[in-house]
Design a protein that fits this description.
homotetramer; alpha/beta; Alpha-Beta Plaits; TIM Barrel; 2 domains; eight-stranded parallel β-barrel; four-stranded antiparallel beta sheet; 15 strands
């Protein structure tokens, strides 16, 4: 923390600032400038609330210096974390792909989708059972029945399962069914839910909120890690900007930034990130080229009839082509695709 | 819904679009243009998912025409809703003011604050007992003890109490203590929590999410209303933009827009909206001049020592001045301040 | 400038940073913390480019401390600047209003508009002669003929004239006709144009760019002031955000912030700020309540037939009502409206 | 254009809307819905200003249907445009790379940089002679002398030259020296400058404004094309968002969107797009993987001592590594790097 004093600060006011720093148990360091004086603070364990100083007479500004996340920080742990999703290693040299429909809609739909994406080399099946929807009148998911169908699809294909948890009430059911528990973008700062998954010992896929900064995403991960669960995969899925031609603005800058600030694996969701079917494939390639550890892709056997997000879902042949092209980019990066489940 | 076809669409593709509209039970209306054809759809009850059409061959764009919220819409109910907060009427000719600290910190703090704001004419005491904080290492509130202290302050001053509910687990406790239940900005799209307060028959203060559009705020209110609870007060509290000099960008445009689209009362939180103490008073005046039905203001008896948000909290004398200036603006608007509780 | 070093910085790297500071002619001040060291820099005249240090080994971050604008800063000049627009004082206790059509369209249109707004008490007539338009196929203004018509309207009504300058080529013509030269939002960082108006000795209305920060607006004003022209009026006119229901997001937070950081007068354009006719009046009241020194309002005698911006233009009766309501807010603020020109 | 009427519109008001459409020379098409009526308009050549209808009694909304750009649209020209920059073909199967310092600083600097990037395979040398800077007190470029040094570097290395034009005054000098004229982000809506380069018959590099939508970028290109100059290369360079960890948010979504809406070539500037040296290489790879036709990269022989943008400039060895990695991505895409000039 650095406290910048006003140019015309009185000796008395400056003394009171120094006294307040000492009173809080910290050590003040005055830096006399030509025009201004600043006071550096040391001796603190965590971040200091600037509110302690901002309102004191003579204080012009307070500037934090250290980052507020620790456990998820690259400074604390240098080597990459590899998250183990029921045998699927996320964050290593091999890239992983999660694929499936926005929502589980029927046994026929989820099974045909699971078989199709497995055949193309996906590792993990995605599919929403509990759907947070902007309108109360929209389809809210098949709920418990949806979880059962995901388990059925896993049993048949060998794919692992990722599905979203909407609230703490349904967390036990989701945790019992899912290999990887997804926290959706709207829940990234639902701190009660973050704490609840932090108390589990199961891997978590944490999606960036649509107006969350990269730092806030890391703070949300810190919430989970601070309860003892460090099996966290970060997910960039697009942020909200002024641009209206695309559903969101996929922020691929986040990949090198997250990689340099944190040891956690990072995957990208280009389906929500651009929101337009024809853009998913180029953005999937771009995500891998930017250094992502994997992808999560919306695929639907019949997107024209999808109950949600049909506009951004790939058909099975389009997904097959995506896997082919992405694997060429992976090779160019000196990486490879983690093989999907062995057909039974 | 309007479906715009591509310029070079084939007769067959156009027929398939028409057939799809009819298959869904709606009526298509072709509009032949010089360069393009568009198809209007009627016969639908609610909004139609554009995903039904966007991926059909020959479709260039799908444009929704009707709004997706109903119960909270001015089209459905013309006259203003007045929400009754334990006897305090919000949304009528008289303006109401909620004031108090960001968080309840101690008996001494909340009582001296409550007495002070009551003496200046506030109607409702604010104070967080459960605090959602960006960092897991920050002060998380006094919880049940905080609720007790708010009740104590109410008993002593006659002020009504508004406090935030963080999750469904603590909702029963909050609902039992609060006269007005606050849904914070980060929970505006926590649909499980919206449904839970929708099942109550108690007034709700719904804050706009920091990246929520005005329409999404109305959709969140619709979630609550669709469960039978229409006692909802909307709150503008600033949105996230590229501007960094202020904490948020207070979007006062939202007031006339909400007022014209909805019958619900609207209050403004200038404390979070600008985030800098010296700016709270001018923005409070501006909110009233824009047509708000009330204010929610952070006040702390000793902001320098506040455990959170000290930087934007007013002192008691500053709040007194704010009430004086705001009441002059109210008069200029042909409105007046609802008198605070009668001293006991 | 504060240089924050990495936790594990070597003694040698730290020495090299100190040497670099000295080499540039400044004085380094090391602040040793428990975990980190920071280096404060003094002795500089203006802002130091962080690029000088950010790439040195061992440097974690560079934080600027002083603001980069000077002449327009409240630190340099404490009392408010009053800009004299051909006898109309902007920035004093009395509020001023500029009103008129988006574009000059015909003699009949500009004269009837000028007479109408003068009758309601406006001080300055606005009207575009050179129009920057997003599409090359849209109406680009009447150009020289438009300037002549503005002069005609001034002669007849006594109103002063503000009109936009689009480029340096047409600046001499605009400067010869206008009492107040407007730099539009899209030209806020057209530095060649800023320098050219800075070389004049005529008042300038500088509109905030739609994605410009408050600090960048002040830097643009500094460009003009640095050439010797300090007759600058700042104008908030809405910024670009994710909100789509309104044309822009009027950032009234900018008013108290500009007022505290600068001595220049500030006016508000609620017409562009909300972009919807029914919202202009409430936002005009709000702007004055927030502390603005005046307004600029789009008014058209027949908005349905306006060639541009009809959707946000007021009719003459609506403008009359706006003046009435705004003057009541002004009184509540202890200010008053500067009387318009005496009818001839 | 589609005009949506209010639910309770009177027969008379509806007739007046139809009459207004006919009066303007267009053909109205009424679509009667269950709850509402809408009116489609045909017979128009270009876009219709919604202002013609929005204020009529009974009108609820006006929705434009056709896009306002034509010459640059993929609908008008299906095959890709290839821009010829003095023999370097941009927009074909082969990718091109522009590289060099932010600003020309000295003969020694620009020559050593040009030699270095040419040796690594760049095709075009970048370097600012006229620099638009946010502060009037910052280095503004070497101006004419800078242009001379760029020509010298071209003569020595065979690289083509791209440099920014800041205003119409200096356009003749820039056009005489440059092979490719750059319009910077801040000038993307400087319509006078767009028209001036539109009157030339020389290739233009048009950078996206930092808050410009994709559609506005295409409209700016349309300005140039409408004057007869269709030799335009579009450039994505990052947009302004709420994210503060990076300088801008590189919007790679823009690549597939621009490619599907326009026939013009698209290049990416990852240096400004992320603003942090360590992120430039991954974002360069991502840009190519997303389908860009080339890159523009800031390179400085000694970035620590750069007069501007040192923080995001690559060293020559880093640029060499970038070329190596990008060419592997290009191969994976079935493309290749256009070879640089043959050494003399």
């Amino acid at each position: 923390m650095l406290i910048v004093l006003q140019q015309d600060v009185s000796k008395e006011a400056q003394e009171r600032v120094l006294a307040r720093v000492r009173e809080l148990g910290f050590t003040p360091h005055a830096i006399e400038g030509a025009g201004r004086t600043a006071i550096g603070i040391t001796g603190n364990k965590g971040a200091i609330d600037p509110g302690n100083f901002r309102l004191l007479e003579g204080v012009s500004d307070c500037i934090p210096v250290t980052v507020p996340y620790k456990l998820v920080s690259r400074e604390v742990r240098h080597q990459d974390t590899i998250v183990n999703v029921a045998g699927v290693a996320v964050g290593g040299r091999e890239l992983i792909v999660m694929a499936g429909p926005c929502a589980v809609e029927s046994e026929q739909q989820i099974l045909s989708c699971a078989r199709g994406v497995a055949a193309s080399g996906a590792n993990i099946l995605r599919g929403g059972a509990y759907k947070p929807r902007t309108s109360p009148y929209d389809f809210q998911g098949m709920k418990e029945k949806g979880l059962e169908l995901l388990s059925l699809a896993r049993a048949e294909t060998g794919l692992k399962v990722v599905t979203e948890v909407k609230d703490t009430e349904t967390l036990p059911a989701v945790a019992a069914s899912a290999d990887l528990i997804q926290i959706g973008a709207r829940n990234m700062q639902n701190f009660s839910l973050l704490e609840a998954v932090g108390d589990l010992r199961q891997p978590v896929l944490l999606k960036r909120g649509m107006s969350a900064t990269i730092k806030e995403l890391l703070m949300a991960a810190e919430y989970i890690a601070s309860r003892g669960n460090q099996q966290i995969i970060l997910c960039e899925r697009g942020i909200r900007t002024f641009e209206t031609m695309t559903r969101n603005t996929l922020d691929l800058n986040a990949i090198p930034m997250l990689k340099s600030h944190s040891h956690l694996p990072v995957v990208v969701d280009p389906s929500h990130g651009i929101g337009i079917r024809s853009g998913v494939l180029p953005m999937a390639r771009a995500a891998i080229a930017a250094g992502a550890d994997g992808l999560i892709i919306e695929v639907h056997p019949d997107p024209d009839r999808a109950l949600s997000d049909g506009m951004q879902s790939l058909t099975l042949p389009m997904f097959h082509e995506l896997m082919r092209e992405v694997s060429r980019i992976a090779e160019a990066m000196g990486r490879s695709m983690l093989p999907g489940p062995v057909p039974r």
